[in-house]
Every structure is written in C-alpha cells, then in structure tokens.
Design goal:
25 helices
C-alpha cells in the first residue's frame, strides 16, 4: 500500500458510513482495514484526530490508534513513545465533548500505551496531577482511570508476567489517590447522575483489580454514598445498576474475608440495610432494581459462605443473609431466584463435606423454605396444555431446579421432597396432568 493522503482516508471513512451502494461500503471497509494494518495508520489516525471533521472520522481514528497500540506497538521506536503519549492526551482533551464513544476509545489507547510504555513511570500520578484541577477534564480523566485497571489483564496486550506485576504494584501504590479523587468528584458534582455513574464504574474497576486498601476503603465516604444511592426510591435505573455493580465488585474483592475485616464488616452491614429498598422495588414492580438487589444479596452470601458455615448466626455468619435470599425466592418472577442458584449449590457442597448433623439441622429449615419457593416457581399456568419444552427459558429453569434439588436433598431428606412431589401431582391434576408428569422434583428424586 502506498502512503495515502488524509483526504483520501477521510473519503473512505465517509463511504464506509454513508455510501448507499453496499459494494462501495465493502470496498471502503477492505481498504481501511488494509490501512489499519500498515505503518501509515499511525500518522493518518493522528491527522484525522487533529482535523476533528466529524464523529465518524474521529471514531475511526481513535479506534485505529487503540488497535495499533494493542497489536502493533512494537512498530514504534522508543524515542517516539513520549510524543505519542502527549498527542493522545491532547486529542482526548480537545475531543472530550464530541462523543463519549470516542473518549472511551482514546482512553483505552492511552491506558494500553501506559501499560506497555515502561518509561512512563507513575502514569496515574501524572494524569491526576495534570487534569484533576480542571473540571472540564474530569470526565475523560475518570474514563482513563476506569479502563486502566481493566486493561491490565487484557489478552490483546503483549506484556509479560513481570511487567504486569510491576503495573499492578504501581496501581496499588496510587489506588488511594484515585479513590480520594473520586470522592472529590462526588462532592463537587453533588447529585449529578452521569458523574456518579462514572465514579461508581471507576471504583468498581479498581475493586475488580484487587488493589484497593481495605482499611482505607472501610473508612471512606464513597461506601456511604454507594449505599445511600441504593436506598433511595428515586434512583434511576442506570445509576442503580452502576452502584449495584460496584457493591458486587467490592464483595467479590474481599472474598478472603479474614484479610479484609474492616471493609468486610462495612459491606456486610451496608447490604443488610437494603432489605426495605428491595421491598419498595417489589411494590413498584421495578424488576430491574429487584434483580440488582438480588445480585447484591447473592454476592454477599457467596462472600461470607465459609463464615456462615463455620459460625452460623454469629457475627458475620448472621443467617439474615439467607433470609434475604429467601425473600427474593418469594418474588413471582423466577428470574430473580435463579440468580441465587450458584450460592445454594455451594452451600450444599460445603455442608455435605462437613457431614455434621447438628450443623445440617441449623440450615435445614432454610433449605425447606427454598424448596417450597421453588415448587411455586415450577408450577405451570392453569391453562397450560402439554409438557413444556426443556429448551425454552422456563423449561431450562425447571431443569436447573432439578439439578439444585439433587444437590441439597440430603439436607431435608427424601420425605420432604416426596411431599413436594405430592403437591405437584395435585397441581398437575388441575392443570391437565402436565405438571405432575414433568415435575423437576420427581426427576431429581428418581435420579437420587
């Protein structure tokens, strides 16, 4: 390929997005793909970003930059790395208001550059020092700080284990600085929903990397803000989801509870305050929020599973965690209870290994109530005809119920499940026999 002009590249991008002839779009796509694989892509992408003609050309250029840094960074001599970094930072600042998608692509390019550019020491410190005092730059700064931890384990980057370890240690060193910046953003933006979503996404990203200091986070106001957002009825769906994702990431990050005790206690107590909010979401028939709460309750139970089995009813082995899941099991939509299935599998496995009758006796009532809830969910509608297909959503749910029953049947005994079968049989007679013939409990008992 000969070196093209930036005007020719721009024409090809326009053809890709706007040519009414499919053949023209295809030719443009092939040519642009060839350009992206060539050495000329670096210069052409940089020039397109400088021109700022429109969203399409800037998006193509930003995407090209990200792809080249991910897959072809070796093409650039080391002496050009600083110039590339400065150029990308200049572009993201000048294009920050054009499109969030472009900002994300450039943020990924900057993050991937930072991870591969060994000479860029303390990249987090550099970015915060450069942009944290400029309110207009906060949006893209937080976007970079969000994708940076996410890209550490990216398979697209050709970096070795030693470099990844070095990066993680560097990010851990500056993690408290990032959290402080996020709290400052919240204080300055007040109840700005878009900013809160960005803050929660960023915080969740750092939790996922596992580098946040537990003692620092346990006493940080951001945790209080998170739970306040989740407790409010008026919280929007998008903000609620972002806050829920963040809490789930935090709970996953402290799975080794003993080494994260202060933060574990704060999260444990915080989640227990969400029961009333869950009931309000049910009353408002807000299924999205109901599902979010159930995800949080399930993650709480997963995190404290070992503690619950070792010291049921004591401290953070408080059995109110199981009560939360059983409340969710009472929701009329089976998608809600299905979220918790993996926890019940794991609980059954742990209790089976302990083989302690006294311990089994403590958990038996909870399993019995779970089975009663599942029995209701597996009922067919009174006007249903025939046996449901195993391949549809409801059929697959019933199959998963059957698998779950097999894993917990030892806790309640066969007679309990037989009583459930009897219930199904009566229901089946009323529904034309389909429920009785295809009862998941009956299947589980037969296989057991």
């Amino acid at each position: 390929m000969e070196k093209p002009t930036v005007a020719l590249v721009y024409q090809a991008v326009q053809a890709l997005y706007h040519d009414p002839d499919p053949a023209g779009k295809e030719r443009a796509s092939v040519w642009l793909g060839e350009l992206q694989r060539s050495m000329y892509a670096w210069e052409m992408a940089d020039q397109l970003l400088q021109l700022k003609q429109d969203v399409e050309s800037c998006y193509f250029a930003a995407q090209t930059m990200k792809m080249k840094i991910q897959t072809s960074f070796f093409e650039l001599p080391p002496e050009t790395h600083i110039a590339l970094r400065d150029s990308l930072l200049s572009h993201i600042q000048s294009l920050k208001d054009l499109s969030p998608i472009i900002v994300t692509q450039l943020a990924l390019a900057i993050a991937d550059l930072a991870l591969q550019m060994a000479s860029w020491k303390g990249c987090v410190h550099t970015l915060i020092e450069k942009y944290s005092n400029d309110v207009s730059s906060m949006t893209f700064l937080i976007e970079i700080l969000t994708v940076l931890p996410e890209e550490v384990h990216s398979r697209s980057l050709r970096i070795g284990a030693n470099r990844r370890t070095e990066i993680i240690e560097d990010l851990a060193y500056y993690s408290s600085t990032v959290v402080t910046l996020l709290m400052t953003c919240v204080e300055k933006s007040g109840s700005n929903e878009k900013m809160l979503i960005k803050v929660f996404r960023c915080l969740g990203s750092w939790f996922n990397l596992g580098v946040l200091d537990s003692n620092f986070m346990a006493n940080n106001q951001l945790l209080m803000v998170l739970f306040q957002v989740l407790q409010r009825d008026e919280t929007s769906t998008n903000l609620h989801e972002a806050a829920s994702d963040c809490v789930c990431s935090a709970l996953y990050a402290i799975e080794n509870v003993d080494t994260h005790m202060p933060l574990a206690l704060q999260l444990f107590q915080g989640v227990l305050t969400l029961e009333t909010a869950y009931h309000m979401a049910v009353a408002r028939e807000d299924l999205d929020k109901v599902l979010n709460y159930c995800r949080i309750f399930t993650e709480l139970c997963e995190t404290f599973l070992e503690t619950t089995v070792k010291s049921p009813g004591q401290g953070m082995g408080d059995l109110r965690t199981l009560e939360l899941l059983l409340i969710c099991a009472g929701h009329p939509q089976y998608e809600v209870v299905e979220i918790s299935f993996n926890f019940w599998y794991r609980l059954g496995e742990n209790l089976y290994k302990t083989n302690d009758p006294a311990l089994h006796g403590i958990f038996r009532p909870y399993i019995q109530r779970l089975l009663h809830g599942l029995a209701r969910h597996c009922q067919l509608d009174p006007d249903h005809e025939g046996i449901p297909e195993d391949t549809d959503d409801f059929g697959e749910f019933r199959m998963r119920v059957s698998d779950l029953v097999k894993d917990v049947i030892f806790l309640v005994g066969s007679m309990e499940c037989f009583s459930q079968v009897a219930t199904f049989w009566k229901l089946g007679v009323r529904a034309g026999g389909a429920a009785a013939r295809d009862c998941p409990y009956r299947r589980a008992l037969h296989q057991h």
